[in-house]
Design the sequence.
């Protein structure tokens, strides 16, 4: 029995990225019930995370536990009282309040006892997945993992309280975790001080130092946003490693060389203006919004034609390939990639003196592929901006 917990910090080397893989099935994972799938009892309402086997609440503020097919809609998966999210794996995940300006709205934390104490000087790869709940008013950067030696005694806790500590590990890049569409990976390497047996997850930073962002209400939300940064948590792992390279904190898909399609058609003066325009399609690298030298040659030619014919207007339509459309579903930074490409062209033509009033802009995503092939070259043909001359 103890009254105060000593928390030992993880190396300040956090990286966060969109999740495509998990390591919880690793035979060397020291986390019990790592997928948060096993529990005892009947789930009827929020605040029941204590029912999860080998896990518990770190303070008196109770975390939540969600289940696919739950009898009560408020704790369901994918739809629940805080938003909509499928489990990263399995049919369950946890939910915590990581931040709120309301002093009565206490943060919650989850913690577990590891299978064995950590060895002094040994490195461990620590990972877990998070997703911001749709209805959250805030998002934060300061989710972390903490290790300590002795278990807590909840009977000696007198009140609910936030767990603040100067030893908290923060994300060096201070990236705010605001992806509510999919799961982001929290990953770091920890060099143990020795005999750590317990790990807690949550935001341990004081309010004034918490890096937070206020978010607009999601489109179509019919109820007020919740005044907190609420996160779902799933798939936790602590795996011993021999060197840093063994802890793969990048979950980006492995891809071949980036291909930018190059047209085979040569534009000549015998072509009509309509033909010149339709053959001025420009192409992009994967997830890129950058004009290469070939693209600027085409755009310069279009700008001259537009300048010489003041009555001409252009329809400018941007597209993506299917893989880019998939990325957009997982990463909001690419939500409007096709439209962004079209506007990139519009801005360039505008810089050449062409009024934006003469340019009609559309972004159609992957809805009209130029090629249905699956080779890198075929996919590259779909990452484009097309033009139609309007007289």
Sequence:
């Amino acid at each position: 029995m103890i009254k105060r917990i000593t928390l030992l910090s993880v190396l300040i080397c956090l990286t966060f990225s969109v999740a495509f893989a998990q390591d919880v099935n690793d035979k060397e994972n020291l986390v019990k019930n790592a997928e948060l799938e096993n529990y005892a009892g009947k789930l009827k309402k929020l605040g029941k995370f204590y029912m999860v086997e080998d896990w518990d609440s770190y303070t008196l503020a109770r975390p939540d536990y969600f289940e696919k097919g739950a009898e009560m809609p408020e704790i369901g998966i994918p739809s629940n009282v805080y938003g909509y999210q499928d489990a990263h794996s399995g049919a369950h995940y946890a939910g915590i309040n990581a931040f709120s300006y309301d002093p009565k709205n206490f943060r919650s934390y989850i913690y577990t006892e590891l299978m064995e104490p950590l060895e002094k000087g040994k490195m461990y790869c620590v990972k877990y997945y998070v997703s911001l709940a749709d209805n959250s008013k805030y998002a934060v950067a300061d989710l972390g993992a903490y290790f300590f030696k002795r278990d807590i005694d909840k009977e000696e806790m007198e009140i609910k309280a936030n767990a603040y500590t100067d030893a908290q590990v923060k994300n060096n890049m201070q990236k705010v975790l605001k992806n509510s569409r999919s799961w982001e990976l929290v990953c770091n390497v920890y060099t143990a001080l020795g005999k750590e047996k317990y790990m807690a997850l949550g935001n341990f930073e004081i309010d004034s130092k918490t890096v937070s962002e206020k978010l607009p209400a999601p489109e179509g939300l019919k109820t007020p946003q919740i005044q907190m940064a609420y996160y779902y948590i799933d798939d936790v792992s602590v795996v011993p490693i021999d060197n840093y390279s063994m802890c793969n904190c990048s979950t980006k898909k492995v891809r071949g060389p980036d291909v930018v399609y190059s047209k085979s058609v040569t534009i000549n003066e015998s072509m009509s203006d309509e033909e010149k325009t339709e053959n001025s399609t420009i192409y992009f690298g994967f997830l890129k919004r950058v004009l290469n030298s070939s693209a600027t040659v085409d755009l310069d030619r279009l700008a001259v034609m537009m300048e010489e014919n003041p009555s001409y207007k252009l329809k400018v339509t941007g597209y993506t390939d299917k893989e880019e459309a998939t990325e957009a579903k997982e990463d909001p930074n690419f939500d409007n990639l096709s439209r962004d490409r079209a506007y990139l062209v519009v801005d360039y033509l505008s810089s050449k003196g062409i009024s934006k009033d003469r340019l009609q802009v559309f972004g159609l995503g992957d809805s009209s592929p130029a090629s249905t092939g699956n080779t890198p070259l075929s996919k590259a043909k779909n990452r484009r901006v097309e033009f139609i001359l309007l007289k």
